[in-house]
Design brief:
Length: about 170
């Protein structure tokens, strides 16, 4: 069991700022201010969580954020990941590009058109990725290659040997 975590003693300016944050319209700021003031009064994270709602870990996160960032922890940060790991290394990107220049039929698929889902499936089967990746991962890998992904078009062709001549000259 984790030992109770308490906020450090507040300065008068921090105490005033936290009381002002209780009137904030932002729910995140309000909740964090409630957590921090309750912790300053000596309540444990479990008592705070049951009093104000939420979970014990949210209270602990608020206290730890206050220890690190001070009053700036009252503003909600970005949910964006700090670091994005590319699933395709440079060698796998080259193999993916070579795979794109082949027909899906060469790898045993029943279609002649690549889709993002099919490319994700085949890249896993070929060992380009360790796990099945999402369509967004494939799209980003193609963007790194400089490939412009568009829907496949069905081209109409004619068995007539003079088709191209007739197509150019509409008077025939």
């Amino acid at each position: 069991m984790k030992s109770p975590l308490f906020v450090r003693s507040l300065t008068p300016d921090e105490h005033t700022a936290l009381h002002a944050a209780l009137r904030a319209t932002d729910a995140f700021c309000l909740r964090r201010a409630q957590y921090l003031l309750a912790s300053a009064k000596g309540q444990t994270p479990k008592q705070i969580a049951t009093t104000y709602g939420g979970c014990v870990q949210s209270v602990r996160n608020a206290i730890k954020a206050f220890e690190i960032a001070g009053l700036s922890c009252l503003t909600q940060g970005s949910h964006r990941p700090r670091r994005i790991v590319a699933r395709f290394a440079e060698a796998e990107l080259t193999r993916l590009q070579a795979l794109l220049h082949q027909s899906p039929r060469t790898v045993g698929k029943d279609t002649s058109v690549w889709t993002l889902a099919l490319l994700a499936e085949v890249s896993f089967e070929q060992g380009l990725t360790a796990t099945q990746v999402s369509l967004e991962t494939i799209r980003r890998a193609l963007a790194r290659l400089g490939a412009n992904w568009k829907r496949a078009k069905q081209w109409i062709t004619s068995p007539d040997p003079h088709y191209t001549l007739k197509k150019r000259d509409e008077s025939v």
